[in-house]
Amino acid sequence: MAAFVPPPGAPRPNNNSNTPPPPPPNYNAQRYPDSLSDNMQNLNLNRQQQPPIMPNAAPRPSPFGQPPPFPGASAPYSRPGPPSARPAAPPQGTFPPGTAAVRPTGPPPGQSSPFGSRPPPPGSFPPGVAPTPAPASSPFQRTGMPSGQVSMPPAPSSGPGPFSGGQAVPPTGAPGRMSNGPPAFGSGAVPGGPRFPPPGNLSQPLVGPPPPPTSVAPPRTPTMHSVLGGPTPPGSIAQQAPPFSSGPQGMRPPPPGSPYSPQSWPMQQGQVPPPPQFPGSAPPPQYPGSSPPPQYPGSAQPPRMYGMPPQPLPNQSMTTISSAGSQTGTPVGSSKIDPNQIPRPGPSSSVLLHETRQGNQANPPPPATSDYIVRDNGNCSPRYMRCTINQIPCTADFLTTSGMPLALLVEPFALTHPSEEPIQVVDFGESGPVRCSRCKGYINPFMKFIDQGRQFICNLCGFTDETPRDYHCNLGPDGRRRDADDRPELCRGTVEFVASKEYMVRDPMPAVYFFLIDVSMNAIQTGATAAACSAIHQVIADLPEGPRTMVGIATFDSTIHFYSLKRVEQPLMLIVPDVQDVYTPLETDVVVQLSKCRQHLEDLLGRIPTMFQTSKTAESAFGAAIKAAFLAIKSTGGKLLVFQSVLPSTGIGALSAREAEGRANISSTEKEPNKLLQPVDKTLKTLAIEFAEYQVCVDLFITTQSYMDIASISVIPRTTGGQVYYYYPFSAVTDPAKLYNDLRWNVTRPQGFEAVMRVRCSQGIQVQEYFGNFCKRIPTDVDLPGIDCDKTIMVTLKHDDKLQDGSECSFQCAVLYTTLYGQRRIRVITLSLPCTSMLSNLFRAADLDTQFSCYMKQATNEITSSPLVRVREQMTNLCISSLLSYRKFCATVSSSGQLILPEALKLLPLYTLALIKSTGLRTDGKIDERSFWINHVFSLSVPLAVPLVYPRMVAVHNLDIKKDGDESPIPPVIPLSSEHVSDDGIYLLENGEDCLIYIGSLVDSGTLQQLFGVNTADELPTQFVLQQHDNSLSKKLNDVVNEIRRQRCSYLRMKLCKKGDPSGAFFLSHLVEDQSPHGPSYVEFLVHVHRQIQIKMAS
Amino acid sequence: MDFVELEAIEGLRWTWNSWPSSKADQSALVIPLAVMCTPLMQQAELPLLPYDPVTCSQCAAVLNPYARVEYTSRLWFCSLCLHKNAFPHSYSNIGDTNLPAELFPTYSSVEYSRPSSSSPPPPPTPTPSRTWSNGGRLSSSSSSLSSMVSSSPKNISGPDDPRAIRPAFVMVVDVATPRDELVALKNELLLVLEQLPETALVGLVTFDSMVRVHDLEFSECSRVVVLHGDRELSPLQIQKFLGIYRPKQQQLGKMPFSQKQGFLLPVSECEFNISTAIEEIQSSVVKPGQRPGRSTGAAISAAVGLLEGCLVSTGSRVMVFMSGPATIGPGIIVDPDLGYSIRTHRDLINGHAPYYSKSCSFYGQVSQRLTDACIVLDLFACSLDQAGSAELKDPVERSGGFMMLGESFESNEFRKCLRHIFTRDEEGYLKMYFDATIEIVTTKDVKICGALGPCVSLRKVNSLVSSSEIGEGGTYAWKLGTITNKTCIAFFFEVSDAHKVQLGSAFFIQFITRYRHGNMGIRKRVTTAARRWVGNRSAEIAAGFDQETAASVIARLAIHRAETCFARDVIRWLDDTLIQFASQFGDYVEEDPSSFRLASNFSIFPQFMYYLRRSQFIDVFNSSPDETAFFRLMLNREGVVGSLIMIQPTLLQYCFDGPPIPVLLDVRSISPDVILLFDSYFHVVIHYGSKIAQWRKLGYDKDPNHENLRKLLEAPEIDAQQLVADRAPAPKLIRCDQHGSQARFLLAKLNPSVTQNSTYTNGSDIILTDDLSLQVFLDHLQGLAVQG
Fold this sequence. Notes:
- The structure holds two protein chains of two kinds.
- In chain A, 28% of the residues lie in helices and 16% in strands.
- The longest helix of chain A has 22 residues, at 868-889.
- By secondary structure, chain A is α/β, with parallel strands linked by helices.
- By secondary structure, chain B is an alpha+beta fold.
- In chain B, a hairpin with a 4-residue loop joins strand 5 (68-70) and strand 6 (75-77).
- Strand 19 (572-576) of chain A pairs parallel with strand 12 of chain B.
């Protein structure tokens, strides 16, 4: 690995070839409980300090800032770094198919086939669970998968290598092996096509697990194209077993192969399997379960895999779940599925290296939730834009048949991994970027130059344009322009152009921050005002430097108080009492340059809480206040940061506490759309549109202890490209830190102002609709007064023509925006995907995370207007229909008794179930919480979508049982099932927003003492603040929490849950695999899905 | 008796000092029966009676020297209605030798002062309650007045904290004023602040395009409530926005004045804050090419709303300092765009002043609010251009407020004005009398028609009120927001035909002026005047004619008419009146103009009318609407002497030959070797003849050899200073040389007896004009008068 030759042109700041990427700056360093804020500080990634050249170049710590993925130990694998075009396996630059050597490091001798991953002996599993499943499952083993195949095919034995690494280090050891990676590969990439000679055949051998006893097995094998075959030598399996045993919960063991291989889960009726023997059975559980380490196959592998040109693989990976009696075709209710074998998300893995194109073909991206480093060599990084299917169906009918959605999820300002090359900035000078004269598409690597470079054909509309004279360049022998590799716009999927005058209606706006703070009696008394003031006070230092940074501040209760910041004397408060028809009190002085008023502003912020201490004003004129603040910054536009604590009760857009009114009949309304989730009227919407028109972006920090009608007020942030933060019930003890960190991240994250975005597609496809936080005034563009790295926009697509099989279809997202430093830029993100008319390709190319994000967004869109029951049903049906399509057209398994899942979508049922049970689709929560959830999902990015509904749970009581070789501070993930939660454990569950710490009833007091400094759980205050105590366990917990914060770019709201009280029940309600009033258990749901499919097949 | 001497005693000037007894005879007089009354005229001998007046139970007239008193039965007969009244107990000692001051024949005016509750009542003082129950009509009528009037008796009689009654001053400052100007203004305001009594309430409102009401209590930072200048807010809204609104019910409750508000506080409590606030006022930024945003109307409305909300109804002033026209909101004068010029008289006549009538009606409402809450509006407009005083005239005039038009806040005129307003009397009280009402009681044959002056009719009718109205009519009581020693009101009367009056008998008119003295005590000044009924055509009528008073009364009528009519109609009316007057009182042979003669006490009247016709009051050609408004406002409150100066300026000539002598207001009075001192009330011009000017330029006056020149130059200066000293607003003092540009102030007023058309100039200066000269005017008058 050492030798890594950096690609010629690419400047890469951080990237050190072999050496593990430098640790994200601050991240690791600081793990002090209290230093949350510090951590967040580091988050301020892209402060684009060197605007001119590479805005993004600045170190971006955060999200990716993860500690170097590669454990020292895994040195062999470490190769991730090199972005070399070749998917070079670390050791060997090239990656000869056969080379077993690659995997090198030593797979534990014991290992058998890579795929054999199934672990272990039943015994290893958690008591209750393991036994049954094991047997049952045994019949169906999950097979090693594609990935495994890929690399291994030639030499199965060698294959194990990668895994072996994992195995060796049972749980933790293998950095990221399988988890996400696998599915992706399995389906889309299925890579190895080229490399692997006999696809189909090969696969079979791979399958490790012994054939299931049941009849099921046979069908499978055939079907499984690669999948099932798992001919792992039993022996090997046995060996694997050990790893599991070590872990208390079966999961630890690295299920190497599994991810990639399709798996089948037998649904058996209470059969008693021979536990030990079927090693195969054992593995399943872990697999999904988070075996932490297992995840990514050797880091080495992934790159390869991705790199591989996608080729139609005969074998599709798939997962089947068959019921025991399946032959009859009816999975009977009584049939049982081994809960340990059903698909579950794999553990997160170590860093993968992803090249966006390889062999002149689009390379399917790794799962959104995995950790990867992108090398942009034509297609954009999947962080910026990803498609629900990585191959585009040729016709609309074909798409319909597949039952899958076709949409792009665009996150134009997504955070990148620090090791990634920053987006390059290209300046075309006065003339502006080269564009197609017909569709106005921007120059990109897929524009084809012809006629000695004198003309080019637009990949979007097909029009032939003249090359501008000064842009002319001869073509090389390969038909590319000779300068293609020197020009970022011709070799990068993401590039930024400096906007010329033509793109400006006015001078680029300055960075304007207007803070608006609720000072009504309630806000003062709960400490919300003080928290807001203190947060702002601290954040001032993080605002961009320079004369273009302007600030303003106002407070409000039943009137609005502006402050003149320019004065030399004491501050001047200007009260606007007319809350029906507001105005801004000064033409100047309300918004001033930060550099000229820093001192005053700080003084003022210190005074505000006391100034209103005696206030008796309970009313809040929120609508009027934002309107007034808007008027104050109307001339420039800017960010309006609002801290609101009570229901707006007076003035423009006053709201009533309709929750109380609505509650009476709420229970009966599951069959009707819930009006409380809709905005009460159009007032605020109208206001919001006006804001957007003047480029005012509103962020809302709701620090409340009561109903706020988020459904109504969230319209404003949503329309203006802003964000809602919800602190409920606000606590002056626990929330100020989060408030500060949220605010800090809000202003320091990469972002742009006064943006306009448009997505263009190749002929044959067109944009159907945009979905997200923006304002749309004309059909083709979306206006984004503010856009930042946390906002994703979904763009649904539709066919308007037939596409040519084998051709490529391009998507180009162009975002014209103004940087914090007042430069006008156009960020152009281009993605080109192959078209296909093979359904199996589609399924292989399906991107589960992206599809699921789509479903979630779709669901949130529906919730407000449809009855909940119907939404749930609809979501279930969406899940069923794509599985049905697969079953019908791709799976050749004749047994109807099996539930066969495409590998890529094997987790779809689980996620669907989780979605159905999510906050937004439940009726038991507060209406505001649901509204917030809905609003949150609107702009949620792909990597955060799944965790939101299917949270991550880890055990923390045994954190300090150190596993060697596991460099990630985050322990293995536990399935969300109460079976995995024991009374003597402490668990941490997080979904990117909330972080629950659950304390069982029998927890050892020593552990409590270590973690929380108390002897019994009863002593813990309900308003919990995580502190670091001087012991390794506590330190580790803090490390874990900080790592999660970093990953999620969110400070997380900590809640303490104790078994036996309501908070415990609250925690348990997050365990989506359990049966609950909100929905069936995972197994039941699978049965339901299976039955539906069977019914539909039969009909 | 000389009318002027009489005025010094009574404070009254009568157009006719003897009245004919029938209506027909009265109308033949041409000049109406009117009294120019200066209610609070400073009088040498004015007894101040420390008790309440005794009033007639029938007509509410106050006991006066003309009443017939029966000492033995302790009865008195009202001189006006002849009703028999008993003296109250406190008068039990009354007797020939023991007369209360109000019965002294020499005291036609007396002043009653209710002692403040702290000091014990002096001897002949009835108990308060009795006093007021006695004055049945008065008190009942009072209670129907505005809230302030009704509350004041309570304040007097009740145990109220005297501190609760205190004047309030709200400064309304235009911050669209240029910086230097604003600095001067701020300094003046700070001085004013120092001069105010500790207990006086103060408030501060600043405005440009927004109106800012300053909170003077908040200590954490400066705090102002900002009202949008573009909005016309109701008083209720203003109070709600200021947080000082109290629902009616609460008003009846326990705490009438304890509402916490920081906008209007006693100087003692907020001196620091308000000084800081004033010091911190900064000029607002003006966009180039635009007039600065000024929301004068909204600011005034807010200030008034504040006073209303704080229930300060015992006298308060809203003092507006502005430096330009309102450009937005209610009361807008002109668009902010400099492309639009500010309205002129021509625009007003042609209807090209889009905002004029709307703004006037807005200020009309303000004016009503001022009256209701007993608030005075003062206007200090310092601007080179018009500032919109014309529209603002109504509230200023009706509330009795002060108006000043100046060019700069740095000017002396402005400083003098401001200081003048806040002067104190010997006892240290502000010489500021608030909340006055004037009631008139007359003999029943005299009917009250109305009044012209800075007052508002209270619309209280009794049998003495005539059905025909002149000016503020239909009442026997008027209200004045404030009143000064000089405030002069013209009251109009007519003779009732109902009863046959006995010729030669006397009739009485009693003026009862109730006001709040600078010490916040209520005072009543009662002036009782007696005149005689005479027969028609009797010589006494002619002898009783006061042509000066007549001129000033006619002038008031004329400007009153001019508010609603075109100038030429007013002039026609004046001419008609004059011709009628001349033919009525002239001595002539019909159809023979040359035979026309007027008796001496009628003879100057036509000349007054001549100058009135061409004065700036009627002929607005050379004035802006603002100036016209100001001139008329001043004329409408000035006494006879002052009015005459305004109508026909005085001209004094200084030369080496002797003491200064008055000369004709004629172009021929200009001469190279004399100095003229011209006084038109608003301007005082010292005009140096060309020779004198030359000498002065050569510095002869500094040459000891030409001591006499120095003295000559000094004399008019000294006199001018005297003229200027007493007037408020102080006149503008102009020094100019013959043929200098500034000489226009003089030339414009002179009788153009020599013009460019004159055949013989006799070396006199000429005035380039087509105006007719006095001689021509009189010739025509004679001709018309004799036509019969």
